[in-house]
Amino acid sequence: MWMKPLAGGSRWGAGLPVDPVTEDCGNVQSWSMPNELWQRLAGAIKGKKGAGELELRDRAWNWDGKLLLPKTSPQKGKLHGAAQSGFTCRDGQVIPSFSRCDAHKDCNDGSDESFVECFKEICQEYKCSYGGCYQETQRCDGKLDCWDGTDETPSLCNKNQTQMTAEEKVSTPKCPENSLKCQSTSDCVDYKYICDGIKDCQDGSDETIANCLISECPNNTFRCAYGGCLAINKACDGEIDCWDKSDEEYAICANNFRKLAPATLTEARNGTNRTTPMVSTNLFDVIRMVVQQSTGCRIPGNLKHLQVKTLFNVLPYRVGSEIADFTVVRLSCSNSTLLLGSDLNLCRNGKWQGPWPDCVSRCRRGIFTRNPSIRSACHYNGDTRDCTDNSSKLFIGTLANVTCATGYKSKGKTSWQTRTCVELPRATAPVWILGKKQNRLQCVPECGIIVPGVKDTPWTVSLFTNALTTSKFSFRCLGKIISAFSVLVEKQCIDTVDVMRYAIISGEYLVAFNDFDESPYKVHFLESIYKGSQNALVSTVDPFIFSTLLRPICLPPIPEWYAQSSSTTAYTTSNGIKITYLISIEDDIREKIKLIRESNSQRGN
Q: Domains of the chain, with CATH numbers?
């Protein structure tokens, strides 16, 4: 596991990039770290997928002082390449490969988050202007993640569209609607020309970082580090078009375009004839211009949840405002709705050339993805898909058939149920409701059973631990699975409550392994640790997937007739099947099991 010293140098954090100036942890006791640092553990939670691939499980965290619990379900991303050797920074420092272009500078020299390194990065959710990837939970959360400020840009985090106000219609010198005033002159630039890689203002203020950080460049264009978009043939052509000179960066030209920058570069001049002067208008002038001189297209006022923005810099257009002729707009949805239709529209000859898409409401899939005890199939318009699959859209009217997953059985008479995605009058989003006259399905593990032919005890797991400064995990002790997310081990097996120091392997294994090496083990990393009076309860990031080879031991109370099989376990028989139980369990451990179970249930709703 990759580590670096915390502030002060006497303690070590697991993959935590700690700034000794701004994040001085002081005298850390028992790894009781601030919330901000616990949240940064997201990048260190990891698991193996196969040779040359590393699967990340990034999430936000809640820390209640005792349990470290994730706030959202895992977001997975694949990284291909040399996960074992790591990424080599310009100064020679080596960091994990997955730390490259992750919106945090892990290299001391910051080279893992440079424009040269990250400009071609493909992100699953959102992308910083320089190329690093960040998550939806990090967007507009008040904390700067992208070092260039992309995730907290005011134009991104403020309300996207507003109606024109009376004050804005008062007679004052101003730029025409949907235009930007140049900073040092009275010239105005139409929104569609901002961040297009051409400096229309004499002072270049239409191509600044503040305006262009959140721009989205179309395919077959080059994105400058500051956010402007150039035609691809302008990159590495010997002429500086991006004011930050990123289009002529030697490393980019040599490695990606196979061009060597000439000894002298020509810098593009500022100023074009596409600017217009400010005008003085009043309400009557506005009405007269709209009625008599309109040649563009007006944004309809009835576009529910639909956001209309510029093509390049995704600046918002106002509802009801007029868009200049021959302008392409970019469309997106808000409020957890899904765009159904094209994300672009063109104003030509005063008419919109395409139909406006719909923003369709949909139900959340969390009730299916966070509950390992069920399996589900969703049906919509004749199409059937696994409800946990992202390809299933879960629109209103979707019907979900739910049964118990393998390794589970129904508690009670209900063996299946149906849920329908509906929109309720006072609900902020669509919800899943049970079918009429149906009882709620409760699936419980088929615990304590060893199927004939299975040699190993299905609930036995191996707890491994690593040293403070190495990534080698060594066997510590055996434990027992007691639920999909929980394992019980003896208290003396736990030296520290630092979750990054431990890993769990299904089955009984004694051979040590290295964190970043290819391993035959299925590795589970820990989410929380609780030490009781006799035992310790550890919960895992991901659930155990139960089968005939992997299942939990049963918890007390034990049926009246039983035989003791060891000092801690006993068994009964039912219909010729042997069922094994734990003889006893502390009350505080039982209470923690209940809390973990409730927490996982809440995250799925």
A: 29-157 (no CATH), 169-267 (no CATH), 294-360 (2.10.70.10), 366-445 (no CATH), 460-604 (2.40.10.10)
